[in-house]
Amino acid sequence: MTLGAYFAKMQGGGQSPPGVGLAEVGWSWVASLVGISLCSYLSSQYFEPQDLTLLLGSFGASAVLVYAAIRSPMAQPRNLVGGHMLSGLMGVLSYKLWGATPWLAAGLGVSGAIAVMLVALVVNNLARHRRYPEYWW
After folding, report:
1. Does the chain have fewer CB atoms within 10 Å around its N or its C terminus?
2. Would you list the domain boundaries of the chain?
3. Which pLDDT tens digit goes with each residue over 118-128?
4. What's residue 97's pLDDT?
5. How confident is the model over 77-99, as a mean pLDDT?
6. For 49-77, what is each residue's pLDDT tens digit?
7. Which of 55, 57, 63 is nearest to 28 (CA)?
8. How far apart are CA 67 and CA 77, in angstroms?
């Protein structure tokens, strides 16, 4: 495979998904409001007094997937849980290695989590029979 053919696969090639209707947007709004509000309430009532916050930044991104993009492969339980596990492992590893400098540990934890997930773009296109992504927009 030539380098040009490898990069050409990154342009996408599949059909873009259809748009969503107003009812779907409304359901997504209500569901995400309930889900994130419940996490916030539980966190403020039970976890924050012990410094064990339940409200994580990644819950916002996950809410978009599970409430607004429910048919997406990334919104399915195995991918969602797997993404949180990879991100959590990167966060713990970053804290263990650079915890004495919290600002650096935080930055490296987040960027490390992104890196282990964006590896898919490179690895999936190495196989001749695979093309990733199917579409960009």
Report:
1. C
2. 19-72, 76-137
3. 766 677 778 78
4. 96
5. 86
6. 776 566 666 777 888 888 888 888 777 88
7. 63
8. 13
- Give the contacts of 90 (CB within 8 A, at least 6 positions apart): 109, 112, 113, 116
Cβ-contact 9, 125 below 8 angstroms: yes
Please give the Cα distance from 22 to 14 (Å, whole number): 25
Tell me the three state secondary structure of residue 134.
coil
Cα–Cα–Cα angle for 114, 48, 59, rounded to 5 degrees: 30
**Residues 32, 67 contacting (CB under 8 angstroms):** yes
- Please name which of 72, 5, 66 lies closest in space to residue 32, comparing C-alpha atoms: 66
As a whole number of angstroms, the distance between CA 93 and CA 79 comes to 21
Amino acid (1-letter code) at residue 75 = A
The answer to whether residues 121 and 132 touch, using CB atoms and an 8 Å cutoff, is yes
Q: Is 75 exposed, middle or buried (0-12, 13-18, 19+ CB in 10 A)?
A: middle
- Cis-peptide, bond into residue 102, ω within 30° of zero: no
The stretches of the chain forming alpha helices (DSSP H) are: 3-8, 22-42, 57-63, 77-98, 102-124
